[in-house]
Structures are given as structure tokens and as C-alpha cells.
Design a protein that fits this description.
This is HAD-superfamily phosphatase, subfamily IIIC/FkbH-like domain-containing protein. The protein is of the alpha/beta class. The protein folds into three domains: 4-244, SGNH hydrolase (Rossmann fold, 3-Layer(aba) Sandwich); 251-395, 3-Layer(aba) Sandwich (Rossmann fold); 423-601, 3-Layer(aba) Sandwich (Aminopeptidase). The protein is built from 24 helices and 19 strands. Strands 11, 12, 13, 14, 15, 16, 17, 18 and 19 form a nine-stranded mixed beta sheet that branches. It has a five-stranded parallel beta sheet with strand order 2-1-3-4-5, sandwiched between helices. Strand 1 (41-49), helix 3 and strand 2 (69-75) form a beta-alpha-beta unit. The protein is globular, with a radius of gyration of 27 Å. The protein starts with a helix and ends with a strand.
Amino acid sequence: MMQVSAVDAIKKDIAKAEKLRDFLNINSKIDELADETSDIKRINIFTLRSFTIENLIPVLRAKCFASDILAQITLGGFNQYLQYVLNDTSELYASRPDIVIIALRLEDMAPKLFESSILERDVLSFIESEVLNTIESIVKSIKQKTASNIIINNFAMPEFPGAGIYDYQTKSSLLNFVRDINLKLLELKEIYSGVYINDVDYMVTKKGLDNLLDRRMWYVAKNPYNSNYYLGLAEEYAKIIRAIYGMAKKCIVLDLDNTLWGGIVGEDGFNGIKLGESYPGKCYKDFQRELLKLTQRGVILAVNSKNNYDDAMEVINGHPDMVLREENFACIKINWNDKATNILEISRELNIGLDSMVFIDDNPVECELVKERLPMVMTYLMPDDPTLFVDFARGIDCFEKLDITEEDLNRTNMYRAQIKRASLQSQFESLEDFYRNLDMVITVKGASDFYIPRISQLTQKTNQFNLTTRRYTEEDVRSMAKDGRHRIYAFDVKDKFGDYGIVGLVIIEELNDREWFIDTFLLSCRVMNRKVEDAMMSFVCEQALKSGIETVWGEYIPTKKNMPAKDFYRNLGFTEIDGRYCLNVKEAGISCPDYFKINIEI
């Protein structure tokens, strides 16, 4: 069993670590716990590189561990990336990596670029084609032989322009060569699924190349960078890895006084709070703008404030400089309860896990209370200096996603509608009457490219009603959709209050001409307890009959969180045989509840 206290202690050490030696010490602790961390996700990473990158390993392992990922990282030999790719029996393929990192420098791939101050346009064009073709051949070979996700470093701007300021005046320059080739690397992401670009150029620009280079180490050990580079690079990789495995947080819970505006509205009044175009009010207004940007990426906002409700709502709805209005918040708790109790209520009303939530407050006492009572909630204390608010908001990187789905864009409205449904339910004596009043429609969709990101997201995030809890990346889903052995059915649910989006998923493996196996059967907690799962299984049985299938098999793999799905197969008439569940499709009496209208768009 995982030693929770020891793991939490390591995570605290990771949060405080600043130097490479700190991460080396942390890795020793991670190794000591490795055999006991049975609940943590384990992945294999293989790195193809053209330069010395050993210092990356301890930092990246620690950053992954902080997100409950235990990473085994293998480094390919120095500047031997092609040998690993072209040899079918190489360690690259033998290690069966979940993720392959391609970390190559232009200086190593195309040294001619840096040997002359001025290069002819046709020479630049030839080098560009050579570099892009090499990277594409690497990607293509890996994709043909593995199911790995691939992270490709783009290229940082050169330390010094080849022709000085002339480089800024012509398209045929080293600077513009790098800009152009980085844009063309994005085309690989469009051609090959499961390929992601790590923007090293942006990272270097943000941190400053002069702060990352180590000239002495380059000449001594072929290591061009100092430890700051590897700290930053590991953080960028960790963001992408978290996003690949769907580990983004869902909700920010916010205080109001001295958080969304300066001052205390109950004491300073509507006109006395600091919010506007001058300092410090501008800092609070810009902080709200950053939060609004997050809602546009699918993050939901909630309010958790000790305040007089009418005073606070007057500011939210009426102050001319408020960027966030009532409609931008999925849930609002303005009362005199303690903050931890309110967060529990928000979690229940929105039906999301506490581990999906982030809490922000300016009061260190409130933050400590939440940390103590709800350690699974990520808690942040607002900076004392208002000029740091925007950087603070941008620095919260637990919401990163590699795709923004239609459900993400509409998430706040979905959760606000959910609260309206709960209010309406109290007006009906029976659940069936309530469900009939909702005018619910289920639409069955296939695994098109448009829906694959959401399908993958569901497998990564759904815990309670998930019979097998198999986690699939977009690349996994795309492979199953094309292999001819799987059927993927996605279920969209809507009612008179709004569209939930795709909330149900069934992945079927066709065993033979007479038998199907249900690999994945899951339903988002947003629509649990409405018999949507019965409608889904009814549809599966209909499709089985049409396909001449006699027997459908399923299994339930218990976890700490999926107890609500424990008796699903038994309740629908499946027979348990050697730990699996079997249904004779012709004799099954599974029907779709009559309060659903079913549409099929496959």
C-alpha cells in the first residue's frame, strides 16, 4: 500500500526544490518508495538526443512524481538518434516507451548553418528540407513500430545572429530560418497523431539564453547548458505529459475581498474597493482577465467568500470595472461558513472531485485551514504585491491541455445548468416524472477526429461509473478506431437546460463472429442516476443483434472510486463466469427508458 505521508513529504520537497542537487536527493527518496507506490501511474520515457542531457532525468522524474506519475527515463546514446530509430532491435523499441522525446539541436543537425555569417537562399532551403525530412523519418519510423506519444523540441533562436543586424533585414537569414522551420514542425503534428511540440524557443526566450548557456561545460563535456535550462525543460515536458494523461484540474475556487478586488466591500463599500484602470485596481482587473481566459479553455470558476451576499453580488453584477460577472461562475458561495465547508459544498453541487479543484485566497489562515482539512485541493496564497497578480495567474500550470474540446468551451454553462436541474428536481414527487420533464435526448456518435480528444479525456477523467478504468490517450483511441477490431460509441446527452456534451463511452472489442467484449464502459458523473447507462447498454445489444453477435462479455475491475459501477452487469442480467460477465444477447431484456429520445449519428 502506498505510504501516503511519505509521498506527500516528497511532493512538498519537490515544490521547494530549486537546485539540481535538490532533485538528485529527491530521486533517491522516489527510488526508495518505487515498489510501494502501487496506485501511481507508471510510464516509460525514451529520449533521443543530440547533446548531453543527463541532468534532465532527476528533475523530470521529480516533476512527474509531483503529478502522481512514476517515470522510468532511458537516455539514448549521445548523438546516436538515427541508430536507435533505424535498428528494429534497438533499446528504443525494446523498452516499449509510452513517450519518446526528440531533443535535437540545430547546431548538431545542421552545423553548416553556423559556419558562415551569410548563406545563400538555396542553401538554406536545402538544409531546411534535410532537417525536416530527418525529423519526419524519425517520427514515421517510431509511429510504425510503436504506439508511443512523441514530444519534439522545436529550435531556440541562435545565440548570435549570423550577420548581426542584417539578419533582421532579410528573409534569407539564420533568425528567419529558425522561425520558419519551427512553424513547419507543426505540420508533423497534423500528419501524425500523438505528436506534440515542446516550445523550447519560447522557454529560452522567457528565461533568457544568457541565463541558460554554459560555455565551459560545452567545451569540456559537450553540455551547452547550465542547470537552469534543465529545470525549465523538465517543467515544460511535465506539462505536456500531464496533459497527455488528462491530469488537468477543472475548477478554481476564488475568494473575493483582496482577491478579485482590493479592499473589503463590507467595510469600504461599493465605491471604495480598488478596481479600475489605476494602480492597484488595474492589477485586480487584469487578474480577472487572466481568469476569464482560463474559462475560455474550459476551466470553471467558483466563488468562496466570507461576506454579505447582497454587498458582494452588487459588485459582481454592477461594478463597471468587473471583468468577471455572475454568469462566469459555475457556483457561488457567499456566506459566513468556513472556507473548507464551502469547498465541500461546491464539490457536491458541481459533482466534481476535490482533487480537481484549486483554491485561491489572500488570507494565509484560510489557506492553511483548507490545506489541513482538504489536502487534495491545490491551495495558493495570493501574492502580497498586486503587480505580481498576472504573473501569479499565468504561473498556475495545472490546467494545461493539448486539445480544447467543445465541452471545454461550454463547461461553465453546463455546470450552471446542473444547479438549475437540481433546483427543479425538488418540485417533483418521483424521479421518473422529473426525468420526463427534462426532455432528454441521447445522441450516439462515432470516434471521428473531432470527438477523439473528448473520448480520450473521458477515459482519463471518469472514475466513479467506469467499469474497467482503462486510460487511453488520443493516439490509443485513434489506433482502435482504425484497427478494424474495435467499435467505439460515444454518447452525447442534452436536456431542456442545455447540452452535457459527450458523457458516455463504450469501446467494444470484436472477439470473433459471435462474441463481443466490452473493453470500456463509462459514464460521466454529470449524468449518473438517470439510467443513461441502461440506454447505452440497450444500444449495444441492438447493435450486437444486428451484427449477428450471440454473446457479449464484460468485466468489472474494482478501484477505490468505481464502487457505483460494481453491480451494473448483475443488475442488467449478466451472468458471472470466472470473474467476467456474460450476456446472451437474444435472451437479454435490456430496454431503453422511455423518457429518452435516441438519435444515431454514426
